[in-house]
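sorry for the late reply, my laptop died twice this morning and i had to redo everyting from scratch. anyway the thing you sent over, i finally got around to it. pasting the sequence first so we're on the same page, its 237 residues, then the predicted structure underneath. double check i copied it right bc i was rushing
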Amino acid sequence: MSRYDHIAYTPSVRRAQEEMGSATAAGRRLREPDGGPDPLTGDAADFIRGLDGFLFSSVSESGWPYIQFRGGPPGFVHVLDPYTLGYLDVRGNRQYITTGNVRGDDRVALFFIDHARRTRLKLFGRATVVPVEKDPALAERLDSTRTEGTVEQLVTIRVEGYAWNCPNHITPRFSQDELSDALAPVRARMARLEEENAALRAELDARRGDGASPPPDGAFPPPGGASPPSGGASPAS
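ok and here's the structure:
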């Protein structure tokens, strides 16, 4: 699993690591031979499938990098095999900068981040962008989970290498679904308290309607429960 390092650690990068004192630690995996593309492990594949967005970086013919966000429901990025990712590209602002960049240079970088779990994955690959009608079988496969919108292109990324990144400085953020799951017990308790409150108000209104004085503080019986015991003796039968 050293392909990522062999791609990322160029001579200029290695000189910077030497200057900053991290060359030894950073270069450990460079001792391993570059055995070609790294296959995605099960953990990496599951991580990618579970996300609802990622950053896609390409390079223009002028040498300037370009970053684009791609989003959709979890699973819209399909792991077609251990070396290939794919998704259906839907119509956006119609600038087609990424499409043009990939035609000139297919080398790309993808950045996947899970804010809630403070985990991120960096990936190098080679991208292909073709019209959706060029491969109907693949289009049908990718259509099982996709971004809403007008589908225009098929995007596939051949994985070259990837690396897990440290969690430092990742601000925890949560989706509506994640917050809903976490707050479910709180909402359930609030619902029970509201029901109890409504029952108490109804009983209080009923007592007032009968002309009876409301009970003193602390003496109001719980809904459906027994009245609190009095301090005096029980009346004789």
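Residues 232-237 have pLDDT under 50 and may be disordered.
thats about all i looked at so far, will dig more tmrw
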